[in-house]
Amino acid sequence: MIGDTEDRHTALRVTEDILRKYLQRVPPNQRHALAVTIIEEICAEGLL
Fold first, then answer.
1. Which run of H or E residues covers position 24?
2. For the chain, which residues make up each domain, given as ranges?
């Protein structure tokens, strides 16, 4: 997990930007499930 608060905020902003970019590419009814999967993967890697 990212320790420094500023680095963590940067990581969260980047993650939000990436999620927004890719979620726009899938149908609205699939966005929530995809977002959850992506966030779970990021957390599993210890990045958030």
1. none
2. 2-45
For 4: left if phi > 0, alpha if psi spans -120 to 50, otherwise beta; the answer is beta
The string of pLDDT tens digits covering residues 1-48 is: 556 777 878 888 888 888 888 889 999 999 899 889 988 988 888 866
Quick one: DSSP state of residue 46? T
Q: Count how many residues are written for the chain.
A: 48
In terms of C-beta density within 10 A (0-12 exposed, 13-18 middle, 19 or more buried), how is residue 17 classed? exposed
Compute the half-sphere exposure of residue 38: CA atoms within 13 Å on the CB side of its CA: 16
